[in-house]
Write a structure and sequence with these properties.
This protein has seven helices and ten strands. The chain has two domains: 82 residues, lambda repressor-like DNA-binding domains (434 Repressor (Amino-terminal Domain)), CATH 1.10.260; 131 residues, Ribbon (Umud Fragment, subunit A). It is globular and about 50 Å long. It starts with a helix and ends in an 8-residue tail after the last strand. By secondary structure, the chain is α+β, with helices and mostly antiparallel strands.
């Protein structure tokens, strides 16, 4: 049975999947479901949990099921991960981007370019994300978003938005992948893990001289699987 923290993380992951699926923001979810924006924001930050009435309001507003929001196995986030792993039709229309070293999903770890290593993404991203690169999440603090074998694609030219998944540099060359929230001068790095108790939010006050320097490297806009050699 999931703990309260794990249930909260599942809800957050499913709500984020809903936003990606529908192309909407937290504010739009609140508007369509007739819920206060601050209420939805508090769910996403793990401060509170929606009532049964509010869950039903979102279900009705978007034509989804309760499981889509609350289930780990059958929720929208799980369906999204399953869809990304389905076998795609062969295509020669792709774009090659460089790979950087492993990025900690549970700890902060140095990120460095893996010379000679590359990953392919859909050709449609070549023009809109010309400086994109791949990074390999490590650890389990983002395992509700990335499977062990998935590669995150980051665009350093994209502004990191509130509630987005991003590559964040901390203490110079160290970096981590987390969902990012902004609260005044504070940047909150939020994990989305099946082991939520092990990964509390990391709050960094950008105005506090004692806080580690933070650099929002770029937003994660895509994920893919590594290419596998074909044997004949």
């Amino acid at each position: 049975m999931l703990t309260e923290h794990e249930i909260q993380s599942v809800l957050i992951a499913n709500l984020n999947a809903l936003m990606r699926k529908e192309g909407v923001s937290q504010s739009e979810i609140a508007r369509r479901a007739s819920i206060e924006k601050q209420t939805v924001s508090s769910w996403m930050r793990g401060v509170s949990f929606p009532s049964a009435k509010n869950i039903q309001s979102i279900v009705d507003a978007f034509g989804i099921t309760t499981d889509d929001l609350l289930s780990l196995e059958n929720g929208l986030a799980s369906k999204e991960r399953f869809a990304s792993s389905e076998i795609m039709k062969p295509s020669y229309s792709y774009h090659v981007v460089p790979m950087l070293g492993n990025v900690a999903a549970g700890e902060w770890r140095e990120v460095y370019e893996q010379h000679g290593e590359e990953v392919t993404i859909p050709d449609e991203f070549a023009e809109s994300h010309p400086r994109a690169f791949g990074v390999k999440p490590a650890g389990s603090s983002m395992d509700l978003v990335f499977r062990d074998d998935e590669i995150a694609i980051c665009d350093p030219d994209m502004e990191v938005r509130d509630g987005s998944v991003a590559l964040v540099g901390v203490n110079g060359d160290e970096a981590t992948i987390k969902r990012v929230f902004f609260a005044g001068n504070t940047i909150v790095l939020h994990a989305e893990s099946t082991m939520a108790d092990e990964y509390p939010d990391i709050a960094i006050n950008t105005k506090d001289p004692a806080s580690p320097p933070v650099h929002l490297i770029g937003e994660i806009f895509w994920k893919t699987l590594p290419a596998k050699p074909i044997k004949f």
